[in-house]
Structures are given as C-alpha cells and as structure tokens.
Write a structure and sequence with these properties.
It is a single chain. It contains 14 helices and no strands.
Length: about 280
Amino acid sequence: MSEKVGSKKVSISKMFVYALLAIATFLSIFPLYWMFVMATNHNSAINSVPPAFIPGAELVTNFVKVIETIDFFGAIWNSLIVSTVTTIGVLFLCSLAGFAFAKFEFKGKNILFIFILVTMMIPPQLGLIPQYFIITKLDWLNDLKAIIVPGLIDAFGIFWMRQYISSNVPDELVDAAKIDGCTNFRVYWNIAVPVIIPAFATLAIIRFMYIWNDFLWPLVVLREESSFTIQVALRGLIDNYVRDNGMILSGTFWATVPLIIVFLLLNRLFIQSLTEGAVKS
C-alpha cells in the first residue's frame, strides 16, 4: 500500500515538473512566435483589436520593404564579421588567461584575479567616453575594428574559463606534460583545449549573442551606413511619422535567425558544459 502511495507521489511530482517545464517553454517561445506573426501580417491586422494570432501572407512583402529601406544584407555581413572575429578572439585570449590563473602560480595572482572580477561590476556605459577618445586617436571611427578590438577581452570569459579549467583539467596531467618537456603553451593547446570544448561552446554562445545584440557602442563609433551593424541598421526602419510594425518586426525577426542557428549548432556542447559539474558532484 505504501509503495502505491509513494509511486503516486512520484508521478504527481513528475507531472508538476513537466507542467512547469511546459509553461516555461511556452513563455520562452511565445515572444519569438509573436514576432513572426507580426512579421507576416499587414500593419492594419497588427493594430486591430484583437490582433492577429496566426501567421499572415505578408512575410515576403514586409521583408522586401526592409531591403528597400536599409542595407539589410550588408549590415548582417558586418555583424557576422564583428561577432565571429570577436568571439574567436575572446575564446582564445580568455581561455589562455583562464589557464594561467588556474594552473600557474605567480606573484599577485589572486589580487589580479579579484581586480578582473571587480571590473564585471562596472557598467559598460562608464567606459564610453575614454574608449571613444582612444578610438578617435587611432582613427578607427566608421571602422569595424572599433568594435572588434575593445571586445577581445571579457572579464566574465576569464572567470568562466578559470573555473572550468580548475575543475576539469587535472594538475597531475599538467605536471606530467611539463616533465615530458612540453612548453606552457603546448600544455594549454594539447592538454587543456581538448577538455574545455564544452566551455568554449557556452562562452561562444554568450559572447556571440552579446556582440550581435550590442547597439550603444556601434551607434557611437559607426557613422556611415556601409559600416552599420544590424542593430544600428534596424533603427532606420523606424519612421517619425508612419510606423510600419510589420516591416519593423520583419527586419527584427530575420536579424534574430543567425542567433538561433548559432545556438542550435552549439546546443549540445552548451548543455554538456552546464551538466558536467552536476554529474561530477
């Protein structure tokens, strides 16, 4: 009798968990679905009461309006260049720094690491003026280097890599490689890198999304339309007098597609990096 009661409690708890997961999934997907619905409907259908809840037939028409209004594909290409190059740089430099903090002993290591963590608490808006001054002196205005170079180092990336390497790369393996005559960089490249691939995937998703969605800094340093990233270019869809929500949401939806593709490509490694610690514990 007690076994039946226990099994009922387990089934009820599972149903409760599944219900919560279903609700969370719906709340996560619905904004994307709603954006797609508005991107496929005419402005009158969007502004009607109640608004349209099913996709319409204006997907191509709205996207043609986007292409005619802004240089959409040029902006997408600029964002791909900036996001890809910056993400690759962050993965290499932050993993290298994280490896040094995790496996090397040097004077002032803890103080320097605390200083890096403190920089995570400073709002990025406070660095706009000094960064803009440096970019101006380097004559990098209207150049994608003005976005790529300042984003190559990320405090969270260093912290994330340091923690992951500390828990997943054994000290004995590093010591054995050094005894065999490996240089520090070879130990990093041949020993650490193959182990931290899941951490690479997680950091790549986070950093790629951050750079892709960044609006303020590109708006400050990019002045010409040919150098606009997609977030800055989408601003051109907003008219002060006539607001075409179907066109605006069409541009926004298609600008989100590359992010979805990147997440789907790295999804398995992303989940693996998050679950490894729980499995080990």
